[in-house]
Amino acid sequence: LGPYSIRNYIIVENDHIRVLAGETKVVPMMISLPAKIKLGGLYGGVFVSLVKKLGVNGTNISSRVGSLIFLRVKGLTEEQGEVKRFDLTGGAKILWTRSPVDWQVTFENKGNVYLNPYGLIEIKNWNGQVIDRLPIEPWFVFPDSLRTRLLAWNNLPLFGYFTATLVLNHGYSLPHATTLNYKFLIIPLPLIVGLVTLALLGFIIYQTIRKLKKWQI
């Protein structure tokens, strides 16, 4: 339940209804709030369970559908949020692979109504050139809660030093946005192995040429 649950304020006249095949029925529902209810947001959902009986010895088949309810109590509300974390999963500063990785953005809602943060992650190389942009679609964060959004990054560059910039708006009704930077390196292991192999091969060739010159003298 919790302090922001709407469950105790939903009234349904009849919660058991028989519906025949091809028939449509309307189920009236009312939300009644007390006069001294706490200002802010209330949240919950209304679900309908469908049960079909197959016979005396048969098995009942059931399914469930529902609709979420976001209710804002009229009056003064507090809309306040904060970005608590922005980094690559695991806090990695060096990527040793070019496989897809995840960015994570953790947002805390410190107010009493839900917020829907949204924005983007812009990735630049060492000389400030934008190489990729990842849009962050809006997601709901309820009051007094933390919620993390993961964004898959598939278009990793080959090698280099990069800066990722997060620009996150705290919600449609809020003008405030947070901007954070995250710096990291991409050094794929296959590239390192290849460079080391070339260096060793070059060293061996150089030593071989030196020995051949000594023998000729």
- What oligomeric state do these chains adopt? single chain
Number of helices: 1
Structural class: mainly beta
Describe the main β-sheet briefly.
5 strands, mixed
Rounded average pLDDT:
84
Description of the structure:
Helix content is 13%, strand content 43%. The chain is built from 1 helix and 12 strands. A 5-stranded mixed sheet has the order 6-12-11-8-9, with no helix packed on it. Strand 8 (118-124) and strand 9 form a beta hairpin. The protein starts with 9 loop residues before the first strand and ends with a helix. The mean pLDDT is 84.
List keywords for this structure.
217 residues, 5-stranded mixed beta sheet, 3-stranded antiparallel beta sheet, 12 strands, 13% helix
Which helices and strands occur, and which strands form pairs?
Elements lengths: L9 E3 L16 E3 L8 E13 L8 E13 L7 E8 L5 E2 L5 E9 L8 E7 L5 E7 L8 E9 L6 E10 L7 E10 L2 H28 L1
